Amino acid sequence: MKTTIILTYTFTPAWLALSRQERNAMAGAHIHPVFAKYADRVSARFFDAEAFTTAFSDFALLETEDLKAYYFLIEELRDSPLIAQGYLVMNDVFLGIEAGFQAFEAQA
Fold first, then answer.
1. Given 6, 31, 67, 68, which is the most exposed site by the fewest CB atoms within 10 A?
2. What pLDDT does 66 receive?
3. What is the per-residue pLDDT across 52-103, written as a single tens digit (0 to 9) for each?
4. Phi, psi at residue 4, to the nearest 5°?
5. How remote is the C-alpha of 42 from its chain's centroid?
6. DSSP H helical ranges for 27-95
């Protein structure tokens, strides 16, 4: 079954203090490679939200049938300077199973 994950997160003032060139370099070195490593098992879409809520600045919509790959992806992000150096704070994580009730009914 496919699991959908919504990650809400906030980029900190330390991140915003970096130039756009520095942010792009950080993303290229530490974010894009992690998502590329798991792209065959975890799809990801990214959304800006800071203009619409004060609860978080951005969110990601991830989909996977391999929760282990998702978990390992998050662990690698946590080890990256993005989180380890305080540029990004994870807020909430929401998980749902696509058509879970239908899968249940099919097996019941």
1. 68
2. 97
3. 999 999 999 999 999 999 999 999 999 999 999 999 999 999 999 988 888 8
4. -110, 135
5. 10
6. 32-37, 67-79, 81-84
Cβ neighbours of residue 98 closer than 8 Å, sequence gap 6 or more: 1, 2, 3, 4, 63
Retrieve residue 86's tokens: 């305080």
When the pLDDT of each residue in the chain is averaged and rounded to a whole number, the result is: 95
**H or E element, residue 24:** helix 20-26
CA angle (45 as vertex; 40, 49 as ends), nearest 5:
160
Phi, psi of 70, rounded to the nearest 5 degrees: -60, -50
